[in-house]
Amino acid sequence: MFFNSFKFVAFAVLLSPATALFADAPVVIAHRGASGYLPEHTLAAKAMAHAMGADYIEQDVVLSKDDHPLVLHDIYLDTVTNVADLFPDRARDDGRFYAIDFKLDEIKQLSVTERIDLKTGLAVFPQRFPIRKSSFSVPTLAEEIELIQGLNHSTGREAGIYPEIKDPAFHRQQGKDISRIVLETIDRYGYRDKQAKCFVQCFDIAETKRLRQELGCKLRIVQLVGGVGYSQISTADGLKTVAQYADGVGPPIARVLSDVDGQLQPTNYVADAHAAGLVVHPFTLRADDLPRQVASYQQWVQLLFQAAEVDGVFTDFPDQTISALSQPFLDAQSPAEQN
Ligand code: CA
């Protein structure tokens, strides 16, 4: 009896920090909004993601010439807008149209489309919203936060924000401190500490550290992780150094699930990250781009949450992700035995 209750107490003590840290899992992050259905980073895509029940809605942020934070995936405007038609003379020598060369009132004249492959002129995802249809524009970060906070108010369900600071080194080269501007903007809307429903994310390792250490950011911070250049911070020891300034990591799915004899198996990555006290939010799940090893989107989602034990995922399809999480777990290793 004594032994049992002792064990229970020890168990509770051992688990409690982790339980608090990972309490809001599983987290569904709408990647650029419900971008499987509407052009990425439009307010329509964000409203749809909110209505679908996404826990967080992602913003990629770049600056305009007049220092307005814009919600746009690339530092370029040409893959998702008609900038080349409206301002044909404003490309740089490399032929690209940079958001940072345009003032907000010019950017507001642009029409946003589903993403186009510049080489072919065709849609990157042909099954998605048709290119150059309907009417969409590039939102500012403030406009988007007001939309999400407005929907939080009118629906009574709180979706969080998940801003990414894009290419801070490029912005610095252009004489701009994007991190400072983004943090000031979100602070103005009440996102200030770890209780706020907000994660700030960035790929640049030095800049992500700077958010915490120099800019005094008290929000939850996610270190994004790419391929080349990220191996040092992806070992068990490397993840401990990340935990000194961040609360989570956002790796590509390939770091958490890898192919073993034709089946996806968890790597050590999530266990190492959890041991360091970090949440893990891998990217990006697309129902129209399944890995060949899985039979369905549901199986992929369940592999990530059940077998790999991730805390959240970035997805273009928040509705299908929430639906997969609500289904009984499939036997992930034996898809052939499922009806
Ligand atoms: Ca992003």
Sum up the overall morphology in one term: globular
Task: Tell me how many strands there are.
Answer: 11
* Share of helical residues: 25-40%
Could you name the ranges where pLDDT drops below 50 across 5 or more consecutive residues? 1-20, 332-339
Averaged pLDDT? 92
- Gyration radius, rounded: 21 Å
Structural descriptors:
339 residues; alpha/beta; 5-stranded mixed sheet; 4-stranded parallel sheet; 33% helix; 14% strand; disordered N terminus; disordered C terminus; binds calcium ion
Short account of what is shown:
The chain is an alpha/beta fold and 339 residues long.
Structure characterization notes:
Mean pLDDT is 92; it is low at 1-20 and 332-339. The longest helix has 20 residues, at 2-21. The protein is built from 12 helices and 11 strands. Strands 1, 2, 3, 4 and 11 form a 5-stranded mixed beta sheet that branches. A 4-stranded parallel beta sheet has the order 5-6-7-10, covered by helices on one side. The protein is of the alpha/beta class. The chain has helices at 2-21, 43-52, 83-86, 104-107, 141-155, 168-173, 178-188, 205-213, 236-242, 269-275, 297-307, 318-326, and strands spanning 27-30, 56-63, 69-71, 160-165, 199-202, 220-224, 248-250, 257-260, 263-266, 279-280, 312-315. α9 crosses α10 and α11 (297-307) packs across α12. The structure holds calcium ion. Calcium ion binds next to β2.
